[in-house]
C-alpha cells in the first residue's frame, strides 16, 4: 500500500484529507515543516501533500529543502492561496502539481492517483535504464566491455546533475551520442540541445556563432543574431572538438563558465545564460596545455566530471552486437528490413571485423556495414562485401610496418633532436603541399596559429620551391 504524508498545520484540514484518501492509501501526518523533515525517513512516503502556509518554515522552503537534499518524492502543493505566482513558484521549485483548497474530493483522489502512477512509471523507467547499462546499452550506444559500462554508469549518474562534463575519446567513438543521451536523461531534457563543432567553424566565425552579434557589429551584420549560448538557454550546449578552439575564444568561453553571462559581438550589454555545458575532444588536452595551445584554467572548468570512451580496438568483443545493431538500422533505412531472410554477416565476415583495428572506431564500422549491405547481392554478407582494408586486416591510415622508415622519415636516426627536426620538416612539407602552400589553411588544419606556423617554418628554413622567402607564401 502506498504511503501519503500530509503536511498541514490545521487539524481539520489533515482530518479531511485523511478521510478522503485512507481507504486506498496509508496516511502519515505532520503539522509543520520541521515535523515533516523527521517523518520523511521514518515514513518513507510515496507522495507528499504539502500546504504552503505553515508555522515557522513555510511549504515552499520545505519543498526547496527536499530537492536540495535529494528527495525526489512527488509533492502535491495544497493551498488556500489561489494565485498564479505561487503556483508557478511551487512548480519551479519542483512540485509535481498544485491544488487550491476548496477542491472537489474526487478531483483530489484523481490527482493523487495520477501522480502516484507517474512516479511508479518513472521508477520503472529508471530501473530499466540501469539494467540496460548493466547489460551494456546507453541510449543508442552499445558496449558490454567493462570500460564502456563504466563510462555509461558515470554518464548516467552525472546526467541527473547540472555539472559540466568533458567527454574524451578518439574521433568516431560516439562522444556526440553520449552528450545527447546525457541531455536526454537530465532535468533539462525538454529544453534546447545545441551542438557546436568547434573544429568545423572558421576562426573568424566561431565567436559570432557562439555569442551572436548586434546589428552593424561588422560588415554584413544587417540584423541582430543570437549566438548558440543564447539559443541553448535553459538547456544544454555541446562544444564538440573544443581542443581545436582558438585561445581568444577559449578566454570568452571561460568567462561564460565563470559568470554565466555572454556579450554579443558589437554589444556592450551582458546577458545571463542558463546553460549546462558538455564538451568533447579527441586531443590530449594536457599536452595541448604544455604546448601553449589550450588554457589550463579553462581545462579545469570543463573537466568537473570527465567521461572517457575507449577506442573500438580496445573493446572488440562488442563488435558482433554493434554490427547487428547497425545492420538492423541500415536494413530499415534501405527498405530491406521486411525481407523474408534479412541479410546477415557470415562467421568469416564477423571474424574479419574483429581482426581489424578500426582506426575510425565505431563510425567507421557503421559506414563499412552500410557499404557491405548496399553492395551485397544475396542474403549473406561475406568477407568479399567488406571494404578491402577490413577484409585484408590492413588499415588505410594505421601503419603496421616494422621497417625502419615511415612516410619517408628515417627512423634509424640516432640523435633524438635531429630525428625530431627531420620529422617536423617532412610533416610540414606534406601538410603545406596538401594545402597548396596556403599557410593560413595549413595552420588551421594542424591546430596552429598562422604566426606560430610561420615562426616554425623560419626555424626549420622551409620555403616553397621556387620562392625566395617565406613572405612569398600565402
Describe the structure in your own words.
This protein is α/β, with parallel strands linked by helices and 474 residues long. It folds into 4 domains: 3-126, 3-Layer(aba) Sandwich (Rossmann fold), CATH 3.40.50.2300; 145-310, Rossmann fold; 313-392, Helicase, Ruva Protein, domain 3 (Orthogonal Bundle); 405-472, Arc Repressor Mutant, subunit A. 45% of the residues lie in helices and 15% in strands. It has 19 helices and 20 strands. It has a 5-stranded parallel sheet with strand order 2-1-3-4-5, with helices on both faces.
CATH class of the largest domain: Alpha Beta
Determine the mean pLDDT.
Answer: 85
Q: Beta-strand percentage? A: 5-15%
SS field, number of helical segments: 19
Poorly predicted regions? 397-408
Might you state the CATH topology name of the largest domain?
A: Rossmann fold
- Just name the CATH architecture of the largest domain: 3-Layer(aba) Sandwich
Summed up, the domain count is 4
Helix content: 40-55%
Structural class: alpha/beta
Record field, number of beta strands: 20
What is the terminal separation in angstroms?
A: 77 Å
Oligomer: single chain
Bulk shape: globular
Q: Name the CATH homologous superfamily of the largest domain.
A: P-loop containing nucleotide triphosphate hydrolases
Which features does this protein show?
alpha/beta, Rossmann fold, Helicase, Ruva Protein, domain 3, 4 domains, five-stranded parallel beta sheet, 15% strand
Amino acid at each position: 500500500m502506498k504511503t501519503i504524508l500530509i503536511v498541514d498545520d490545521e487539524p481539520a484540514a489533515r482530518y479531511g484529507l485523511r478521510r478522503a484518501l485512507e481507504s486506498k492509501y496509508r496516511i502519515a501526518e505532520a503539522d509543520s515543516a520541521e515535523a515533516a523533515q523527521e517523518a520523511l525517513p521514518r515514513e518513507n512516503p510515496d507522495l507528499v501533500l504539502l500546504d504552503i502556509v505553515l508555522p515557522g518554515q513555510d511549504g515552499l522552503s520545505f519543498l526547496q529543502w527536499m530537492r536540495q537534499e535529494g528527495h525526489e518524492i512527488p509533492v502535491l502543493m495544497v493551498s488556500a492561496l489561489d494565485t498564479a505566482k505561487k503556483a508557478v513558484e511551487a512548480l519551479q521549485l519542483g512540485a509535481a502539481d498544485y491544488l487550491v483548497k476548496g477542491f472537489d474530493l474526487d478531483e483530489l483522489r484523481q490527482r493523487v492517483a495520477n501522480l502516484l502512477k507517474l512516479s511508479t512509471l518513472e521508477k520503472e523507467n529508471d530501473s530499466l535504464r540501469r539494467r540496460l547499462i548493466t547489460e551494456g546499452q546507453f541510449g543508442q550506444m552499445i558496449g558490454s566491455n567493462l570500460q564502456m559500462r563504466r563510462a555509461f554508469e558515470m554518464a548516467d549518474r552525472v546526467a541527473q546533475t547540472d555539472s559540466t562534463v568533458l567527454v574524451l575519446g578518439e574521433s568516431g567513438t560516439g562522444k556526440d551520442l553520449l552528450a545527447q543521451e546525457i541531455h536526454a536523461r537530465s532535468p533539462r531534457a525538454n529544453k534546447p540541445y545545441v551542438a557546436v563543432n568547434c573544429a568545423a567553424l572558421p576562426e573568424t566565425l566561431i565567436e559570432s556563432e557562439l555569442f551572436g552579434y548586434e546589428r552593424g557589429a561588422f560588415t554584413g551584420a544587417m540584423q541582430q543574431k543570437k549566438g548558440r549560448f543564447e539559443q541553448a538557454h535553459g538547456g544544454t550546449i555541446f562544444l564538440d572538438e573544443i581542443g581545436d578552439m582558438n585561445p581568444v575564444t577559449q578566454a570568452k568561453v571561460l568567462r561564460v563558465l565563470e559568470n554565466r553571462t555572454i556579450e554579443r559581438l558589437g554589444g556592450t550589454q551582458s546577458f545571463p545564460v542558463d546553460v549546462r555545458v558538455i564538451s568533447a575532444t579527441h586531443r590530449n588536452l594536457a599536452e595541448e596545455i604544455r604546448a601553449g595551445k589550450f588554457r589550463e584554467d579553462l581545462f579545469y572548468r570543463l573537466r568537473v566530471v570527465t567521461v572517457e570512451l575507449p577506442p573500438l580496438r580496445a573493446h572488440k568483443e562488442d563488435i558482433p552486437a554493434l554490427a547487428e545493431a547497425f545492420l538492423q538500422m541500415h536494413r530499415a533505412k534501405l527498405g530491406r528490413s521486411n525481407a523474408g531472410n534479412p541479410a546477415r554477416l557470415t562467421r568469416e565476415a564477423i571474424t574479419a571485423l574483429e581482426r581489424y583495428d578500426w582506426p575510425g572506431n565505431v563510425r567507421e564500422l557503421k559506414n563499412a556495414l552500410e557499404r557491405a549491405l548496399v553492395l551485397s547481392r544475396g542474403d549473406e554478407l561475406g568477407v568479399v562485401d567488406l571494404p578491402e582494408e577490413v577484409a585484408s586486416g590492413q588499415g588505410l591510415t594505421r601503419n603496421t610496418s616494422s621497417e625502419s622508415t615511415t612516410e619517408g622519415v628515417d627512423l634509424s636516426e640516432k640523435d633524438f633532436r635531429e630525428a625530431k627536426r627531420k620529422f617536423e620538416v617532412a610533416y610540414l612539407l606534406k601538410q603545406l603541399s596538401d594545402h597548396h602552400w596556403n599557410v593560413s589553411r595549413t595552420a588551421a588544419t594542424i591546430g596552429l596559429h598562422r604566426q606560430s606556423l610561420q615562426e616554425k617554418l623560419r626555424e626549420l628554413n622551409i620555403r616553397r620551391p621556387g620562392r625566395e622567402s617565406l613572405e612569398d607564401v600565402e
